[in-house]
Write a structure and sequence with these properties.
Blueprint lengths: L2 H32 L2 H26 L2 E8 L7 H14 L14 E7 L6 E7 L3 H5 L7 E5 L10 E11 L16 H6 L10 E10 L2 H39 L1 H9 L22 H5 L8 E12 L4 H13 L6 E5 L2 E3 L2 E3 L6 H11 L9 E3 L33 E8 L5 E7 L6 E4 L6 H14 L3 E5 L5 H9 L8 E5 L8 E2 L13 H16 L7 H23 L12 H6 L1 H11 L5 H9 L10 H12 L1 H7 L8 H6 L3 E5 L5 H19 L12 E5 L2 H7 L1 H10 L8 E4 L7 H10 L2 E4 L4 H10 L6 H5 L5 E8 L2 E9 L3 H4 L9 H11 L3 E2 H27 L6 H4 L12
Parallel strand pairs: 14-20, 14-21, 15-18, 15-19, 16-18, 19-20
Antiparallel strand pairs: 1-3, 1-4, 2-3, 2-6, 5-7, 5-8, 6-7, 7-11, 9-10, 12-13, 17-24, 21-22, 22-23
Helix pairs in contact: 11-12, 13-14, 13-21, 14-16, 16-29, 19-29, 21-22, 21-23, 22-23, 23-24
């Protein structure tokens, strides 16, 4: 068989098949052109069903997410390495999902949230499988990790949304922002003036997703191809310009002249030969930039939402946040996604993108734009909570707003918000245990204490304001002159103003108020020892004599009160009679015999007769100085005193005590008052703690008061909290206070405040704050400005700069200048004030009354048995016959 015909038939068959195939393709193309909507519809249905399936799986996976809140302390100062490690943790945790979970769910979300109740909350959301990994942070103990709760926001009337993408060259990094100041500071400043009552809300959500390998390879191929094409275009452009330059040279008059002068005919050789530049080799590191390496490369999605119940505030807040994100801009920057149509912007708030935004916002789905590729180093400012270098605003959640008449709040000052709005801030009364105010004279520390005391008084609280100079009383009386307060106010003024001043009275030895005898003796003895610097090593005999003497006089007063004759009680001025008058001593000992313990009776019988007369001088000299002053003689010489600080504590009285002066006599009187206050507070142990009424002593001029009784004041700052007595002290110089007082008040101060002053005077206070603010900054503050650190909800707030409250401003509505005379009369009446002359006469006659009482009692006792003088002053004691 001839092969040639067979080959021809095969060729014809192949040609026919090719023609048929071409014809079929043409017919199919015509059909597709005529029925293009059918395949498009099929593709759309397939895509839609696939998207619905993926969304269903993604929504199911989103239900298995966890939330953590990171709360930094005030010393949180991470390094770049710690922040980078945290970023690595976040990237690794984003993959802690089952293999079947859609990629959009494999992400970790950082939430920066502010709603006016907190400056900026830092939350982490991610797959439940990454909770253990994310719970242990590289930040150490400076950050507390809390399990976050679901946050349900109330609907706001005005809401704006925005999605941010990276603008600029794809391979260019964001700006490297330093850690000091904190990169989050612009964001904190942008939300610093949020107001809860207006429904303000601002939140940034940053989703981090590890870069898919296939997508990264495709992007690199695209970038390398674009770089090679750009290099070829550049080489072609350079060659074109080179040929144009060469042609221009030949056509120029110089080239023509050179050709005419040449010996050789024809064109000059070599002039037409132009070597085009070779395209430069593309460097992958230069072309790919931050996409060159796989390590620590992530894709991010940045969503922002602002809301408010007031029109315009949400839109303005979004503009502030956009400006804050500009801080991270360099060759690449964050820009709002969308476009402008005249005055309208089409973005995440409009159809069709807002539904996608809401789904990603609510479910945590990460579907970032194709250009949002970053390295972890670029996000270092967002991978950690606010640090020590971030200035956080003071919000209502941090410091409550002062409400006049609220017994739970104590006024602290006026805080000016970043938007310039002032607010009266306060601390909670139950947390303000002790308070210390430091500052120069006239700086406003006393004015601030007065404002706080007046607010506390109007809220129903009890207090005692001890002011040696009396300047605080006329300043405060205008704002206390209310009929509701007049029954509770008492004035103990020892400045003796006027020709015949009116004074109150106090018997430190009085037993008519139910005091315990040993506590009264101990309080007076300790006051003496504090002022005169007595102790068991330097003055043991003086302490013994005074203690035994006071024990007898207190026992006599107990007997007088039991007999229903409190007006016959002895006073501190009868110490001299007891030590020097034998007849009075024998009668007093006989009256007090039943109340004295055996050891005290033995001391009077065996030791006292052996003492020389000059042994009493050290005890009697201070009392003689008190007796020589007519004011202290009248105040302390009354048998029944009106002043009773324990009753004032329990009945919520408002007591103003003005000791007057700073000499030795006044120091002893101040020491007696301070020790009695300590005794009265400790005596509250006889009632349950829940029934103890809060009481606040205010000590103005602590230097003067502690000079009289340093150990007593120190003990107050250490012990009185247990008895719900909370001390407030003011002083010009912290360094001038005795060391025990200074250590106790700084250690236990719930509130520490300072005004301007010299650098050396302020340094001890700022040192407690770690010199932040510095002494130089505090020293240059204006008058009435304070730096204050406070305790709220168990944590320290501040130091915060506050404007000291001025009474004429904060309590202008409470001023009652017309009622001041009525208040003065009521305050003196409540203190039992009487004319000085009348009190002096009564004090002079009191020795005779006490002598008559003890002599009458002793006569009754001696009718049963009268011991001999030897038995009384040194002989062996005789046993008394049994009664009956």
């Amino acid at each position: 068989m001839d092969p040639a015909p067979v080959t021809g038939r095969a060729v014809v068959t192949a040609a026919g098949q090719a023609l048929e195939l071409l014809t079929g393709v043409i017919h199919a193309s015509h059909w597709l052109l005529a029925h293009w909507y059918l395949p498009a519809l099929s593709a759309g249905v397939c895509w839609g069903m696939g998207e619905l399936l993926v969304r269903h799986l993604a929504a199911a996976a989103s239900n298995e997410r966890m939330a953590l809140e990171l709360v930094p302390n005030r010393h949180f100062d991470p390094s770049l390495e710690e922040i980078f490690r945290r970023g690595v943790q976040l990237a690794r945790a984003s993959t802690s999902m089952p293999w079947s979970a859609p990629r959009r769910t494999k992400a970790v979300r950082i939430r920066l949230r502010a709603d006016g109740s907190r400056a900026l909350r830092y939350l982490i959301e991610g797959p439940a499988g990454g909770e253990r990994l994310l719970s242990i942070t590289p930040f150490g103990p400076d950050v507390t990790v809390l399990h976050g709760r679901q946050i349900i926001d109330k609907p706001r009337e005005h809401v704006v949304r925005a999605e941010f993408i990276l603008r600029g060259k794809l391979t260019s990094p964001l700006r490297e922002v330093p850690l000091e100041p904190d990169p989050l500071q612009p964001l904190v400043d942008a939300v610093a003036d949020l107001r809860v009552e207006l429904g303000d809300l601002a939140e940034i959500r940053l989703d981090i997703q590890r870069a898919p390998k296939w997508s990264l390879r495709a992007r690199r191929l695209q970038l390398m191809g674009a770089a090679r094409r750009a290099e070829r275009r550049e080489a072609q452009r350079a060659a074109r310009w080179l040929r144009q330059d060469a042609g221009g040279i030949e056509d120029s008059w110089r080239g023509q002249l050179q050709q005419l002068l040449s010996d050789r005919p024809g064109p000059v050789p070599g002039r037409r030969l132009v070597m085009p530049p070779v395209p430069r080799r593309v460097d992958p590191a230069e072309a790919l930039g931050k996409l060159a390496d796989d390590d620590h490369l992530v894709r991010v999605q940045l969503l922002v939402m602002c809301a408010s119940n007031v029109e315009g505030r949400a839109q303005a807040r979004l503009g502030q946040l956009q400006a804050a994100l500009d801080v991270f801009g360099g060759r690449a920057r964050w820009a709002m996604r969308g476009w402008w149509l005249g005055p309208w912007r089409v973005g995440a708030d409009q159809w069709p993108t807002w539904r996608s935004f809401e789904r990603r916002w609510d479910l945590g789905h990460c579907q970032p734009p194709r250009v949002n590729w970053v390295r972890l180093e670029e996000l270092s400012g967002l991978l950690k909570p606010p640090t020590v270098h971030c200035r956080l605003p003071v919000l209502a959640h941090d410091l409550p707003t002062f409400v006049f008449g609220n017994p739970k709040l104590l006024l602290q000052g006026i805080y000016r918000h970043p938007d310039g709005q002032p607010r009266q801030v306060a601390t909670y009364a139950e947390e303000t245990l002790f308070e210390v105010g430091v500052g120069k004279a006239g700086g406003g520390k006393t004015e601030r204490a007065l404002a706080q005391a007046i607010g506390w008084a109007h809220a129903g609280g009890g207090l005692v304001f001890i002011d040696p100079h009396r300047d605080s009383w006329p300043r405060a009386v205008t704002f206390l002159a209310h009929e509701a307060l007049m029954p509770r106010i008492a004035l103990i003024d020892l400045n003796a103003l006027g020709r015949d001043p009116w004074l109150s009275s106090w018997n430190p030895l009085g037993m008519d108020h139910g005091q315990k005898a040993h506590e009264v003796v101990e309080a007076i003895t300790d006051a003496y020892a504090s002022v005169l610097a007595w102790d068991d090593a330097t003055a043991p005999r003086a302490l013994t004599i005074l203690t035994a003497t006071l024990a007898v006089l207190v026992a006599v007063n107990e007997a007088a009160c039991r007999a229903g004759r409190p007006e016959d009680q002895a006073t501190i001025f009868h110490v001299r009679a007891l030590l020097t008058d034998g007849a009075f001593r024998r009668a007093a000992l006989a009256t007090a015999a039943d109340q004295l313990d055996a050891e005290t009776r033995s001391w009077w019988q065996t030791v006292f007769p052996t003492l020389p007369p000059d042994a009493f001088a050290v005890v009697l000299n201070p009392i003689a100085r008190l007796a020589a002053n007519p004011v202290t003689r009248a105040f302390l010489g009354q048998p029944v005193g009106v002043y009773d600080i324990r009753t004032a504590m329990d009945s919520q009285m408002i007591v103003w005590v003005c000791p007057g002066g700073n000499g030795p006599t006044h120091r002893l009187l101040t020491a007696l008052l301070a020790r009695d206050l300590l005794r009265a507070a400790r005596s509250r142990r006889d009632i349950p703690e829940s029934q103890r009424v809060p009481f606040r002593p205010y000590f103005d001029e602590l230097i003067t008061l502690t000079g009289a009784s340093p150990e007593t004041i120190a003990a107050m700052f250490e012990d009185l909290r247990k008895y719900r007595c909370h001390v407030h002290g003011m002083t010009q110089l912290l360094s001038r206070l005795p060391l025990p007082v200074r250590l106790s008040l700084v250690q236990n101060a719930s509130t520490l405040a300072t005004t301007a002053g010299s650098r050396s005077a302020i340094a001890p206070v700022t040192a407690e704050w770690g010199d932040n603010p510095s002494p130089d900054r505090v020293a240059t503050m204006d008058r009435f400005e304070h730096y204050v650190s406070m305790s709220v909800h168990g944590r320290r707030i501040g130091p915060v700069q506050l404007r000291g409250p001025h009474l004429d401003d904060v309590f202008a509505d409470q001023a009652r200048p017309r009622d001041v005379p009525a208040l003065e009369r009521a305050a003196r009446a409540n203190a039992g004030a009487q004319p000085l002359s009348q009190l002096t006469a009564r004090a002079a006659a009191q020795l005779d009354r006490v002598t008559a009482f003890v002599c009458g009692r002793s006569a009754t006792d001696t009718a049963v048995e009268r011991p001999s003088k030897e038995q009384e002053w040194g002989g062996p004691p005789r046993s008394r016959p049994a009664a009956g």
